Amino acid sequence: IRLLDPPLHEFLPPLEEAHDARMRQRIKTLTESNPMLGTRGCRLGIQWPEIYEMQVRAIARAAKAVHERGGDPPLVEIMHPLVGFREELRRLRELTERVMEEEAPGLEYLCGTMIELPRAALRAGEIAEVADFFSFGTNDLTQTALGMSRDDAEGKFLTFYLEDGVLERNPFEVLDQDGVGELMRIAVERGRETKPEIKLGICGEHGGEPSSVAFCHQIGLDYVSCSPYRVPLARLAAAQAVLQEAHRAEYVQTGG
Questions:
Q1: Would you tell me which of 68, 81, 101, 195 could form a disulfide with 128, CB atoms 3.0–4.6 Å apart?
Q2: For the chain, how far is it from start to end, CA to CA, in angstroms?
Q3: pLDDT at 204
Q4: Are strands 133-137 and 223-225 parallel, antiparallel or unpaired?
Q5: Residue 46 above 70 pLDDT?
Q6: Strand partners, 191
Q7: pTM for this structure?
Q8: Domains contained in the chain, CATH given
Q9: Is the pLDDT of residue 241 over 70?
């Protein structure tokens, strides 16, 4: 379960609908010029911890209710988005542990983060010290690694780049294996150096694209997730990646 990720401005009413002077001033104060790189994700949870505490409390109560009604206790996985520093996740893990102990003591759960920033990929070793899993948010990681806003690139200069041969593929549809993929590879290696058992996966539209899924298998990810309509394709691509690896291994063993 990914905790709240949208930029702060999405929680604010439109300025023209605010009639109270204090509210209007507060909205102006909190409005950002580049909200996608501003107060969002874990930054929101650290500055206003009551927001994330409310979410974790709701998750814990829901999981506890399932168990009390006779169902198997679910293994809850709580994911903190946009972490770039170990200290961010350490604080939010502390919050998560405290609330889970208050609401559902003894309930098994995992606490991890999304890898959406180049710094998080490069410092994955230290972030893994306080994470049970990583999920690569490749939509945002592509934006931050390439310095491209998807909303501003697609249909504008990115279209020209593709038509003019600057790029062969749309990096928001097919994973940029040489750039974004290299950051992922570094994060996998450094994360597992610290914690060999750490669970690694990908979430985003790339999780349903065959060549991207094959790359994820190659670097050692445990799972991919994607939009529901892409699930059949993702399963097929994952199966093909495993079979191709087995075929290559057999080829090497038999000498061709």
A1: 195
A2: 46
A3: 84
A4: unpaired
A5: yes
A6: none
A7: 0.90
A8: 49-254 (3.20.20.60)
A9: yes
Integer Cα distance of 78 and 130 in angstroms: 13
Non-local (6+) Cβ contacts of 219 within 8 A are: 181, 184, 185, 188
Separation CA 225–CA 214 (nearest Å):
13
- pLDDT band at residue 249, thresholds of 50, 70 and 90? low
187, 120 in Cβ contact below 8 A?
yes
**Which amino acid is residue 66, in one-letter code?**
V
- Is residue 8 very low, low, confident or very high in pLDDT (cuts 50, 70, 90)? confident
Pair 155, 120: CB distance under 8 Å:
no
- Provide the sign of the torsion angle of the four alpha carbons 37, 39, 44, 47, taken in this order: positive
Higher model confidence: residue 232 or residue 118? 118
Per-residue tokens: 36: 């996608």
Backbone angles phi, psi at 199, to 5 degrees: -85, 130
Confidence band, pLDDT 50/70/90 cuts, at residue 157:
very high
Alpha helices in the chain (DSSP H): 21-30, 42-47, 49-68, 86-103, 118-122, 124-127, 138-146, 150-153, 157-164, 180-194, 210-218, 231-254
- Find, among 176, 169, 97, 111, the residue nearest to 143 by Cα: 176
Instruction: Identify residue 67 by its one-letter amino acid code.
Output: H
**Which tokens is 147 given?**
């310095």
Residue 89 to residues 38, 85, 97, 177, 253: CA-CA distances in angstroms? 17, 7, 12, 27, 44
- pLDDT for position 23: 83
For range 111-119, the mean pLDDT: 98
**Distances in whole angstroms, Cα of residue 175 to Cα of each of 73, 80, 194:** 36, 23, 26
The answer to whether 158 and 166 are in contact (CB under 8 A) is no
